[in-house]
Specification:
- This protein is an alpha+beta fold and 196 residues long.
- It folds into 2 domains: 70 residues, no CATH class; 80 residues, 2-Layer Sandwich (Alpha-Beta Plaits).
- It has 7 helices and 4 strands, in the order αααβαββαβαα.
- A 4-stranded antiparallel beta sheet has the order 2-3-1-4.
- Strand 2 and strand 3 form a beta hairpin.
Length: 196
């Protein structure tokens, strides 16, 4: 016959915190966050970078350093949608990334238009170092390889948990893990898309 113990006896007289009293609230909040994450992902979608969508990369060298925000605003006012500018190398070198435009005739024409706008906004003579078109096929390969790596990692974790835990612990962990993973994925993608 098994001997019965109280919770205090099992914990050697230490205080026991009843965190399970919040289980309904925790499940409710977790469910709301999961639904919000799925809705955001469905409504907003993802802001894929140039590697996945294709576009043009233009490297420009300036005579003297200039404000990137001023150049970005000037490019947007000139009609270029979502130009991404960043310094590389030194403060004189600027990389301009442009998403693919409808009816884009060629990189040289786009490069000369961008160079003209930057020269006017900075009052200096900039020089184009390189113009390169990035195709979306590279992005498709990256997305496929990344998805396969993610699935392999997730499957490995699931197999490990399947053997390491038992019964109710396994089911609870898998439920929490699925919710946490989907929330992190959506909010991480949303945060990254707001930065670019």
């Amino acid at each position: 016959m098994a001997q019965e113990y109280t919770v205090e006896q099992l914990n050697h007289g230490r205080k026991v915190y009843d965190f399970m009293r919040w289980d309904y609230w925790a499940f409710g909040i977790s469910g709301l966050l999961l639904i919000a994450a799925i809705v955001i992902m469905g409504v907003r979608g993802f802001n894929w970078g140039l590697d996945f969508t294709g576009g043009t990369v233009i490297e420009i060298t300036l005579e003297k350093p200039a404000e990137i925000d001023v150049m970005r605003d000037a490019l947007q006012k000139a009609g270029f949608e979502e130009p991404m500018l960043q310094n590389f190398g030194s403060s004189h070198d600027i990389m301009v990334r442009m998403p693919p435009a409808e009816g884009e005739t060629g990189g040289q024409v786009l490069g000369s238009q961008v160079l003209k706008v930057i020269n006017e906004s900075t009052n200096q003579n900039a020089a184009v170092k390189r113009i390169e078109f990035v195709g979306p096929s590279v992005g498709a390969d990256l997305a496929q390889t990344g998805a396969m790596a993610l699935m392999a990692a997730l499957l490995s974790i699931l197999v490990y948990v399947g053997f390491a835990l038992s019964g109710d612990w396994r089911q609870g962990w898998l439920l929490r893990w699925r919710t946490t993973l989907s929330l992190r994925w959506v909010f991480c993608r949303y945060s990254i898309s707001r930065l670019t």
